[in-house]
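Continuing the series of single-chain predictions for the mutant panel. This is the parent chain; the variants come on the following pages.
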Amino acid sequence: MSGGVDSSTVAALLRREGHAIVGMTMQLWNQRRLPELAVEGATGRCCSIDDVYDARWVANQLDIPYYVVNFEDRFEQQVVRPFVDEYLAGRTPIPCTLCNNFVKFDQFLEMAEGVGAHRVATGHYARIAYDEASSRWQLLRAADSAKDQTYFLWGLTQDQLARTLFPLGHMRKPDVRSLARELDVPVAEKNDSQEICFVPNGDYAAFLDAYLREQGEAAPTTEGELVDTGGRVLARHSGVHHFTVGQRKGLGIAAGEPLYVIATDPATQRVTVGSNTDLLRGSFHVKEVNWISMAQPEAPVRAEVRIRNKHTPAPATVHALAGNRAEVHFDEPQRAVTPGQAAVFYCGEQVLGGGWIE
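Parent structure:
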């Protein structure tokens, strides 16, 4: 229970259906850390202290057992530190996917079993189905395409899918709010959270600097050259980790046409910029691939591939490689294929699998 309308509605719905349920909230990040990043009056932050209070309020109203479980150490080891390391390595990580893979659907399931719960229900917008023909659990897109969260769930295993419920997957958000009002959920009108829980001001570079200072680590010196695609030096930049592929603002240079970050290279400390056309890529490699609705294929697979959360999945051919890797070839080149982001493979409503862009 995150304290938001979605997970609260799930709890109320399952309670009405007569299930024996236990409410649990994960304490992931000490909100008092890095006070220099605090934004007065900021709202929309995931997993805040107020969210814990709201979750307890809902549990009390539903008259169900409720616990706050401390996963701060696990979260820092599996989410925060990799987030920092990936950024410093010139990649753009997705902390929400790391959290799903290593905390919410891993450690949390173990914790649930400790209180006698054999399944976990969450407010994620996705669907799960069992396919008799393949004897596999399938991850399916949500009915509400605007809220679909399957891009962040591609790392779920067959065992995790078998023990997970997504009761809102077949509903649209306005209908969820209507149901919350019908069930007298006290947070029915609460706004959705948007920001990453440990980056309250949305400034990733400032978070990296503050976190490294807190850890007693010297921030790496990654100043270097800003160059065009031909290698011509245009300016100096303050640090590679301040840039991400596709970025347009904050380049610090004036040009006759819009320029975008095409690539970052921490080894040479160079940031390459170019035109929107230069951002297009026809193929790329993926690592740590998790095949969900099918076993790893021996032949190339046709799929629609999403390379970021708001990207419209594009037709492609996926070639599975040894070592849980894959090579993706788009039918038409796509914009801003970004190392560190995820590539998720779809076939209609099914999530075939996904992995990290190299």
